[in-house]
Design goal:
By secondary structure, this protein is mainly alpha-helical. It has 24 helices and four strands. Helix 3 crosses helix 8, helix 9 crosses helix 19 and helix 11 runs antiparallel to helix 12. The N and C termini lie far apart (88 Å).
Length: 625
Amino acid sequence: MSENTAVLTPGPFQKAVNWFASNAEKIAFVMLILWCMLPVFMTGYDLFMGATGRFPTEEELQGLKLGNINYTVAINFYYHAFCVLGIITLVFAILCIILCHSRIFNKAALKKMPWIYLLGALLVWAVISTLVSDDIVHGFLGGDYVHDGLLSYFFYMAVFVCGSMIRNEDYLRRLLRIFGSMMCLLSAIMLLQEFNIYFLDYCFPARRTVVFNNSNHFGYLICMGVLAFAALFLFDSQAKKAVRFSCLLGLALLSCALLVNNTFGAYLAAAITLVVMYVFYIRSGRKVSFIIFIPALIFLVISLWNVVGPALSSSSSTSTLSANFQQTGSDISNIAENNEQADRAGSGRLILWKETVQRIMQRPFFGFGPEGFFGSNAIRGNMRPHNEYLQIAGYLGIPALLLYLGALFTMAWHHWKRLKTMKPMVIAASCVTVAYLISAFVGNPVFNTVPFFWMFLGLISCGAEDALIDPKQADVEAQLREKTDKKRVWVIALAGIICVAVIAGISAFLEKRRENSNEMADLQGMMMAEMTSRLILQDAEIEEPVEFWYDISTLSLVNISEQMPAPYGLGTARKGGALKQFIEETGVTYEYDESFDYRNSVLKVTASPASDGTLQVTVVWAEQN
């Protein structure tokens, strides 16, 4: 070293950046563990609320459905926790992307992993779709139930970035085990609830859902858990016998839970993916023996017992699996004959799919925006088509669906060609991802289930290649050795802080804006009540006016002689803004009285025969007694 050579000692900030870069994968691993544990924390919250009597009792509600209030409390708390963890994950992902910008934005990376850039383009397209939608506030924040708006999309992509940074196979193995164990715990609670334990019914008002508020949503995660344990048994051949045996026990528990959950789409997805898993196993060149078929045999035996068990017992109950297969056969027959029952196929999904295609043709380029099927754009009074692929095309446009499918196809083709060189745990995580993608044909993306799909998609995104977003290999230390780069480091850090501040500020602003558009939600509730009431009463023979309460939480009619449903009205603000635009575009004629307190009100439906013989339905707000 010459006498004129200066030795530059990194300052505290530079050391912090170096530490962050060298530990980024560990931090991402911890982030993903927190996402896996979030449903468990929410379950503990519900149990605590129940044990301390925080939820209202049936007596306090004076006969109202217990689930209406408990759902609202639980969903809101879950969403707030989701946003907090999402913002933390997003900050981390942005910092990692900034540090790895030289690795990401080059032609070699684009050629090696094109799906990363297709997914990035999909997120940009979603932003544009939201900005040109009818209601930017609704598109950004999503609805009050599934919260599948643009803000959630950013959180999903942040989870994907964390997953794509995991190159340590031991980390991947642990995540698979943690996810499967989490599903076993929640499934055990669900199975215990079948024994009519009042305390569990009080904490989780709806059966077969636990903290996911819908049995279908929970069913898709159980399906992923089944494949997690089956794939661990197959591909983690170095694990101890006790660990592999515990995987079989977990598989058996989740298979039972899947049948009790009675989400047939999730069951079919699990069965099909088990076959795909063995195709992956054989394609990867591994030795085939009888022992590898044990997971499939366990799944098959439990399924057969579900079919044969009721017939052998003295019980008059029928097998849920048999009933589902029979109904599916009947649906296929109705579709082939194209009779009047065909549209009800798939528990009414077929008619939703048909009308979604019509909506897609109305706005094929940018769609209706995230969760855009509301108000006059609703499909049969429903905001979701129960098919994630059609939903992407309907919400974001056909180009968005092509970007999404293009990303999945290029990743699948890349991995298929390199299956023999891929790490065993990457193949195992691929099986879990395939299970979700199959179930997505009949499912809805929801804020408390979709992050797990993006986590697994991120875990398999690199396959046999090096991680694209890897600060440890981004030569951060070399960048920080030069004095001239010190300013750049501060600029990068400041840019990350500004990005997070902008996102947080926009979220707060739009949340405030939503308070000022509650009157729109009230009018949309009236429109939904009218549409679904017509659908429910279309075959009824009504000769004189009949009144019902409309339960908007279950989209059902309640006899007027029964107790009112829980209040739904949100109207706490004046007309104007989004409401004015909504009225101009839809021509809605419903009255909205600014002096009326809608917060303690419910919807009342009156059905009567019109002079031309058609069904006339009117909807008004009624104040709760």
